[in-house]
Give the backbone structure.
Amino acid sequence: MKKPALNVIVPVGIEGRSYDIVIGSGLIERGDSWDGLPGATAAVIVTNSTVEKLYAQQLAHALSIRYAKVSLVVLPDGESHKSWESLNTIFDHLLAAACDRKTVLFALGGGVVGDMTGFAAACYMRGVPFVQVPTTLLAQVDSSVGGKTAINHPLGKNMIGAFYQPVRVVSDLDTLKTLPQREIAAGLAEVIKYGPIADDGFFSWIEEHLDALLGLEAEPLAYAIRRSCEIKALVVSQDERESGLRAILNFGHTFGHAIEAGLGYGEWLHGEAVGCGMVMAADLSERLGLIDATYSSRIRQIVKRAGLPTIGPRLGIDRYFELMGRDKKSESGDIRFVLIDAPGHAILRSAPDAQVRAVIESNTG
Amino acid sequence: MKKPALNVIVPVGIEGRSYDIVIGSGLIERGDSWDGLPGATAAVIVTNSTVEKLYAQQLAHALSIRYAKVSLVVLPDGESHKSWESLNTIFDHLLAAACDRKTVLFALGGGVVGDMTGFAAACYMRGVPFVQVPTTLLAQVDSSVGGKTAINHPLGKNMIGAFYQPVRVVSDLDTLKTLPQREIAAGLAEVIKYGPIADDGFFSWIEEHLDALLGLEAEPLAYAIRRSCEIKALVVSQDERESGLRAILNFGHTFGHAIEAGLGYGEWLHGEAVGCGMVMAADLSERLGLIDATYSSRIRQIVKRAGLPTIGPRLGIDRYFELMGRDKKSESGDIRFVLIDAPGHAILRSAPDAQVRAVIESNTG
């Protein structure tokens, strides 16, 4: 096996602005990871109570070479804290420390920290720069890329947010070594996603390398993250604000969001709900005659092999419909699903209620 | 005197997007004021408890021709309610009513309603369209134009917000007839502002027509609103995100914000604080040798004639400095003031503490 392909840089260009995703080992502690960022007096690291213990001092030390004042905001850990209250903790800190509009925020953590820090950066004084330092696989392959930021509302996930791009994403592979296996699997759900929606060759590659990925082998891991970021960056650069194409990135998310909301956020990990949601969306694609049973079964198998759930919770069919009707892709109450209509290709469309009911009946329990 | 120049349209172009400001009489109840807006199932009118009684039914009726569902969110009245709690009232309503991402919000009210509705529109599902329907003079000449939206934080005014442009501004002159005189004067503060910073001829025109404006005479009023919007639109189109030029629109606001924050938001009207702040900023300009005593005195006189305060509250000099240091224009603790350096021209710069102290000493008590 060759040396791991580390320190890969994936450029992302969106409406004239552009930034780099840097992928490699030991990046947090290296000073040159932070070269070329916007100058400012203050850097503020936002993290959670779990990640703080592991990487906050390392990052603070590396940033102290570049910024005169480096401070830390520690949020409680977990999706249930992706709320206005936690967001306000960031604002309270920024204002108490008299941070000006050049202050750079650093999101050190998983998707929850990244989404909240990005949204705080979008809103603080109507916008300050921020850097994503994702420490989970899910964040490295999905949520840190593309500029979607948000908090949850009691009535819906990610309902309050902004499209706001980071100035850089620094994905340190070493941080994945401290992740629980359950979170590795959840991250793989989003890696798997890119195959059926955009790159059938990548799907086959994942099937071949899944065990290596589960074992965190550096070279395949770096490749999986890089390819995921490339696909996402390409889609987002064509449709930042999800007027069309970008919606395909939500494969598995319509059913998945319903599962998360129905159980209460945090019960299942986001990636677990997406994994199960992909199985359901593949089944729906098959029932509508868009793909054959073999392809649908391949999706179910890879989700299962990754250690992700393939059977959704029994929330009740009406409850699924109600929760899916609140999805942001819905228009005028019409639920729109991301469906696979060919290997490596997805479309956004509605589906007859009868087929959706059948999918829920067959895939929950 | 000629017929009032009503139904004026001022186009605003910002980074490829553009929208119209429509100024005229009886616009709210006229169906054609709302022609050409984005189609949607739902329109949501956000207003406050005072304005609701006066115009909400009229607007709801006019919109019901175009939108299948028209609903109303009524916020408590006043700057002290420009808070996260009120903002959440809007989100709660939108989610409870299952509003999708095509829903159009209408901000019916003054600057507080406009800023909060705009920010809610910017954040709801990461952005839905909104229309400004300003019903105060201040909102018609200033806050409804240019896309600055925000809420206050206990530690600072407008600290949490977004740059987010409306799809249209509809300024119905008839709504000014129900405004208290104090609010007319407060609105005139922002009209007056445009003279010294951008158009010396307009400043002379205001001096000549101030009594007519205070008496709400239709033709001069329409002209003052139009000219104010034109100047603001020109400045904003060159610098939406306030990296430079746009800051000149904050003439009087550095001292003004300190007054508002020091007394507690809502004690003085925003326009009253800006009026007094302009007197202080003019005095500072004079002390720095940028303008002569005659010009500084003209600014003081017009503010006084408008019925606005020219003497700031005695908060203490250190307190003024502390509050001004939190201004969004500040960088690394360096307070930057908008100063007049020639009739009809403003610059952004810092000033020696001694002169700032002298200004506060001479103009408060």
About this structure: The interface with chain A takes residues 41, 84, 88, 91-92, 95-96, 98, 100-102, 122-127, 148, 150, 153, 155-156, 159-163, 241-242, 325-326, 328, 330-333 of chain B (CB under 8 Å). Chain B has two domains: 8-178, 183-363. Residues 337 and 349 of chain B are 5 Å apart (CA to CA). The longest strand of chain B covers residues 17-24.
